[in-house]
Amino acid sequence: MREIAWITLLFAGLLETGWALGLRYTEGFTKVGPSVATLIVMGGSVYLLSRSLTSLPLGTAYAVWTGIGAVGTVIAGIILFGESRSVIRLLCIVLIVAGIVGLRFFSDT
What we know:
Strand content: under 5%
Shape: flat
Largest sheet: none
Number of helices: 4
């Protein structure tokens, strides 16, 4: 059951990346289509996070969820919007990924 919780959490984090990207297209929630899609993806992300909490510690799950969302959003920004690819920025992303992996493999449950 624990492995399913981690997989669920991974998808929750990926959906977090999706809704963060969606925010860019809502134009302050003034565009109906992108706004509705973003809200649906937000709901899915939070729902999957809540499901993972049945087997994972809150602090661990939340940190991993936000970490996946942050890394995914930065990578998407680099690929889709030409955001900075500076070495220090990429190093910071590597540190976040290291934290996510560490929490995954050294979590108490």
